[in-house]
Amino acid sequence: xxxxxxxxxxxxxxxxxxxxxxxxxxxxxxxxxxxxxxxxxxxxxxxxxxxxxxxxxxxxxxxxxxxxxxxxxxxxxxxxxxxxxxxxxxxxxxxxxxxxxxxxxxxxxxxxxxxxxxxxxxxxxxxxxxxxxxxxxxxxxxxxxxxxxxxxxxxxxxxxxxxxxxxxxxxxxxxxxxxxxxxxxxxxxxxxxxxxxxxxxxxxxxxxxxxxxxxxxxxxxxxxxxxxxxxxxxxx
Length: 236
Known about the structure:
By secondary structure, the chain is an all-alpha fold. It folds into three domains: 1-107; 110-188, no CATH class; 206-235. Helices cover 77% and strands 0% of the residues. The protein is elongated, with a radius of gyration of 24 Å.
């Protein structure tokens, strides 16, 4: 159900996607505030009521509704994240992908989150430049990302992702020595193994890593086919 909803929404323009989801989140947030105020008012006027059991049941019911509304609020955040991934990895629509990231940055009011979105925007541009074949430009953009502006809970992810794309850029620029220096800095084995096995293929060796079963998207398949072809040539 979620996948179908994501696919349906992803057909819209970047602006329609972001504005539509943000409007729904604002509505849910306003509903949550109203419910909280009504709950507090209800509890205050019925505090000395003789029928306290009924009062408590109503109050608990309101709390349950509030949690449900909050869950929907978080759900829309996840849906937006899924749409962004779908646009990038399945539709391979780089223009819409960057449009969504740019709109998220522009409409954000919280200064701290806005600074984080700016860095995420840069990362998105670095990705797009890499997949567009502009490896030096991609490196230049990735080097300018300030991870101190990214929240701690997202920092490890972006640190590894930035390092990964830097390595991929250096691989395409034939700077094997630089990749060998950098790839040991990964905090996740999957990224390190991926870069290490790509390096082996680039050096003319045979690797079975590219044939392992992993979740695949259209964009990943395209990149994978390139290294599969090289690996095949190395084996023969």
